[in-house]
Amino acid sequence: MITQVENPILEIHDLTVSYDQNPVLWNVDLSLPAGNLVGILGPNGAGKSTLIKAIMGLITPTSGYVKVFDKPMNDVRARISYVPQRESVDWNFPASVLDVVMMGTYGKLGLFRRPGKKEKDLAIKCLEQVGMSGFVGRQISELSGGQQQRVFIARALAQEADLYLMDEPFAGVDMATETAIFQLLQEMTAAGKTVIVVHHDIHSAMNFFDWLIMLNLHLVASGPKEIVMNEEMLRKTYGGKLNLLTRVTDLIRQKDFNPLKG
Amino acid sequence: MEDFLYFFTFQDPSIAWVVLGITLLGVGSAYVGTFSFLDKKALLGDAISHAVLPGICLGFIMAGEKNPVYIVSGAFLSGAAATFMSSWLRRNTKLSDDTIIATILSVFFGFGIVLLTALQKSGNPEVAGLNSFIFGNAIGISENDLMLYGGLSLVIILVLTLLLKEFRLMVFDPEYGKAIGFPMKFISFLFNVLMILAVVIGIQAIGVVLMAALLITPGAAARFWTDRLNPLLILAALFSVLSGILGTYVSFVLPKMPTGPWVVVFLSVFAMISFLISPKSGIIFRYFARKKYLRKTHRDHLMKALYKANEEGKTGLNIEEIYQLYPYQKVETNQSIHDLVMANFITNNQSFIKLTETGISDAMRIVRLHRLWELYLNESMNIAPDHVHDSAEQLEHLITPELEALLEKRLNYPMLDPHQEPIPRPNKQ
């Protein structure tokens, strides 16, 4: 059940992604309207993070392409903001909360130029938005997992983008904070921004998202929440592994090359 | 003493030059090295520094004499070859990083030693100077060499300063850098070039064997003192420059003494001092912090014992009774009694110990925290009443007033703990 839209803000065309020999996403084809809060749902290992990384151009797809604002990714990076998974960095790095959030302004600054007063004020404002204004000078390793997550969200806000891609931003965040941040994201989408969030909790997904993408190695569903969220789709997404697909993957892995790459 | 004055007043211009060179070298290598230490690539520096030896020898063979330009170029190219080979092996084999580093290091260094030995047998009188590249000789540097090494150091310092935020991103979150459109591949390539250059500038003064120490140790030592990148870089540079100058001084005073080993000795002293006495992470600091905490817990326990005696209707305890409560801890107990008398929490009247007014209220607080925590464990965490005492014994010293208020609220201001003992609170006026 896949709803395609006219004038999409994000278009993914027949995207297949493999790690080494191993296909992890099969022929994803979807388009998204602007101004929505979009959730990507799926079980562990369904390829949710892979999809986000492929959209960001951090991994090269085996086939297919991604267009954002009707342009290739590299032409519009300044308008796109990315929140990686918290575990992807070493939090013992010598930096304060402010240092990390200021990284959000690097993209606009470009190479060589240093952040100044304007960037600092923006970073502090973004920290306020995620309820972390009391931690500006704190060493990042002293934060809890949920607080580190919020620092990453603040960094993404500091990019002042039009499209936000967030990889599991609520992992390790308590319920109250999750709700507060969801409300912030809803305000952003009401102002015309688009926010795409990899999420694991179906219950809060029901409450907050406008549009849902359901993944399980392939695209199960993409469409407005009211249409997509039903028992059949959930069963297709979470109802165990796709036995046949997994066996084909195993078969491919045993080859010395990837037959999907032309 | 004469030597000392002669050296440090820089009467001899050649000494002034050498010190300037060592300073630039120290700043440059500490700067690059701190980033590679933070990026967990300390071993790569070691591999590169060993791997430049064959390049030095080949440069010498090509020039037929100790020409610094040939030697530096040779060293750079062979360092680059080692770096390239290690990343090629990483991409195209399943060998682990440590295996690759160890292999590259030993193969290149072995080849370098073979070339060096062959050169020494060739009878060229210039060859003698080549030995100083193994352990370094700062005093033997000519002015020409200095221009080259100092100039390269300046290039390193300049590039790193200009691209500070880019390198910060490269170490902390390269994927994010890629996502915001920074050329992360180029930045990390540039960093590798700087890393090789940093090794190359040190070969004459420090030597190939010990250059890795000058790269890594300053940053590692400075990390004990600060949690911010900029102070870290400055402090690392300071350690490195000081060690460089002191090492040069020793090799100036003691003839035939190589510079590299002495620089490393001084660096190690800085690292050792940092490891021992830096606040927060130094081990001596931590030892005293722990000791202080243990003394506080002992005092708290003594106060509690006195409070319990009050509950049983006694006005206080005899010192012998207290000693019996803490067998084999007479020294600690006397210390605690002394401290508490000084704090005006207890009085010691001919070895009869009594709580004062302020003492009673503080002791009451400790007992209250102990019993509140016991009740919390019992009620909210379903732990049996006979299993809660030990945990409370440890946590009563830690619970803050805010946490206490939260506990009180959560438990709804209880009267009794799980052992049916009253939870004491001051009378509200």
Primary descriptors:
heterodimer, A: 262 residues, alpha/beta, Rossmann fold, 6-stranded mixed beta sheet, 10 helices, 10 strands, 35% helix, globular, B: 429 residues, mainly alpha, ABC transporter involved in vitamin B12 uptake, BtuC, Arc Repressor Mutant, subunit A, 2 domains, 3 strands, 72% helix, elongated
Could you explain how this protein is built, in words?
The complex is a heterodimer of chains A (262) and B (429). Chain A is built from 10 helices and 10 strands. Chain A is an alpha/beta fold. Chain A has a single domain, classed as P-loop containing nucleotide triphosphate hydrolases (Rossmann fold). The radius of gyration of chain A is 19 Å and the shape is globular. The two termini of chain A are 29 Å apart. Chain B folds into 2 domains: 275 residues, ABC transporter involved in vitamin B12 uptake, BtuC, CATH 1.10.3470.10; 71 residues, Arc Repressor Mutant, subunit A. In chain B, helix 8 packs antiparallel against helix 11 and helix 12 packs across helix 13. The N and C termini of chain B lie far apart (74 Å). Chains A and B meet through helix 3 of A and helix 9 and helix 10 of B.
